[in-house]
């Protein structure tokens, strides 16, 4: 693993009214690493990732990206830094086909009359899905007709087409069947192989042991545990999530 973090978040604090959601969080993410970010409901996981993705601006703290101090004021700035997020609700357009979802807002156009080049768009979509090993009936299939795992795979593939350096995934295997979970976990492994740094938020703890290199545990707005996956067991991870580990390692 590279010794220089791709992302270093230092002493991140943020409050909403009287509620202190993050109480001085230090988080590092390395190139080509899958980091599991876990914690009980209200621990601060989603808030921390919304800071990284530009949805929230912290009250204090700093972020260093590839060795350079940065400030992320909004999601557009995060995208310019090649930080992409796949949220739990996916934000797909159900009535559009797969290719249209993959290239929504950046469709290839014919050079002369500036209309969408649908043939090229579907060819590019198939190429991208094949590269990632995503199996769907057709790039012409409406997203609303896909299974949950296929929809999740399309959402991940769309984020990957932006060539991210950091990909945040919020509960990507929630409410999926066994076969569909396997499809999504395999896709995460393929994304990692391309050098993308992945942050995985999930309550399916068994998934962490399938794909993660390291796990960071948040508890009441602070990191209380941070270890390589090989240093965790399911029992020790549950103990951390429930607050029985009081200090990050």
From TrEMBL:
Which Gene3D superfamilies does this one have? P-loop containing nucleotide triphosphate hydrolases
Alphabetized UniProt keyword annotations? ATP-binding, Nucleotide-binding
Instruction: Report domain ABC transporter positions.
Output: 7-245
Q: Which PROSITE patterns match?
A: ABC_TRANSPORTER_2 (PS50893)
Which GO molecular function annotation, any one, does this entry have? ATP hydrolysis activity
Which residues, if any, are the signal sequence? none
Protein's recorded name: ABC transporter ATP-binding protein
Say which species the protein is native to.
Sporolactobacillus putidus
């Amino acid at each position: 693993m590279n010794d220089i973090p791709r992302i270093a978040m230092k002493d991140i604090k943020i409050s909403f009214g009287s509620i202190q959601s993050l109480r001085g969080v230090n988080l590092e993410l390395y190139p080509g690493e899958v980091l599991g970010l876990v914690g009980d409901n209200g621990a601060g996981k989603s808030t921390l990732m919304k800071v990284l993705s530009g949805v929230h601006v912290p009250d204090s703290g700093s972020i260093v990206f590839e060795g350079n101090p940065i400030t992320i004021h909004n999601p557009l700035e995060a995208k310019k830094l090649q930080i992409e997020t796949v949220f739990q609700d996916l934000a797909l357009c159900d009535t559009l086909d797969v290719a249209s979802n993959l290239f929504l807002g950046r469709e290839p156009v014919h050079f002369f009359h500036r209309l969408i080049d649908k043939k090229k768009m579907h060819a590019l979509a198939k190429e991208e899905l094949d590269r990632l090993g995503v199996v769907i009936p057709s790039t012409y299939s409406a997203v609303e007709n896909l299974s949950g795992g296929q929809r999740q795979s399309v959402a991940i593939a769309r984020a990957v087409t932006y060539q991210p350096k950091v990909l945040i995934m919020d509960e990507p295997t929630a409410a999926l069947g066994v076969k569909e979970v396997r499809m999504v976990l395999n896709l995460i492994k393929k994304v990692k192989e391309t050098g993308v740094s992945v942050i995985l938020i999930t309550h399916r703890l068994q998934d962490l042991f399938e794909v993660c290199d390291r796990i960071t545990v948040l508890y009441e707005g602070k990191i209380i545990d941070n270890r390589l996956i090989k240093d965790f067991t399911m029992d020790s991870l549950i103990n951390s999530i429930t607050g029985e580990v009081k200090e990050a390692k």
